[in-house]
Design a protein that fits this description.
Blueprint lengths: L4 H15 L42 H8 L5 E4 L3 E4 L9 E7 L10 H21 L6 E3 L10 E5 L12 H7 L5 H19 L2 E2 L3
Antiparallel strand pairs: 1-2, 1-6, 2-3, 3-5, 4-5
Helix pairs in contact: 3-5
Bound molecules: zinc ion (ZN).
The site of zinc ion has 7 residues, from helix 2.
Length: 206
Amino acid sequence: MPETPQEWYARVSEAIERDGYRESDLQQWSSWPWTGALAPKPLDPPADVEPPRRGAGGVDCFVCANAASLDPSSVVWHDDLFLLGLPHERRGLPFALFLMPRRHAELGNLTTEEATRQGELLTAVDVAARQVLAVPRIQVAMWGDGTEHLHWWLYARPTGMLQLRGTFLSHWDDLLPPVPPAQFRADQVLVTQELARRVGGEAVPD
Ligand SMILES: [Zn+2]
């Protein structure tokens, strides 16, 4: 029988108390962005109830609002089912977009049609980004712990920037000085225009 969260926490806490945290070699990784010693935080117990996320149930959901308005300042490509949104905050990487369904949905309640298109789009964005930008591939992440409306984080590093490879790319993105906003937008639009040529939908003009 699977452990309950309380059983999991009790076992883990006891092990930490007895043996400490496991040894980590993160500081040896060439992609680890920081220097200096690491000190893990104490582990909090599980909450009794998961807190509501932003836009829960589609109420006051800013993604739904964007999907309805298709405001070109934040939506740079859309079709009937999905949109690509620009990040609100300035980014250090040459490629960063959010892929989101236009309908308020989480990963687990996409329709078959939406899930099929989602797979096609993930592949096509990777191809389009590599076609028009100097990036080796896109990285894809989905957490969904802050905002309920499904949003895939799509990132890419500059080709040859081997230090940015892998798990810590999003942390590097937070640390690096941002790409000038006009340049960043123009580069993302190049990708969405290439995407539209490949799999349809409408990209914003230059
Ligand atoms: Zn929504």
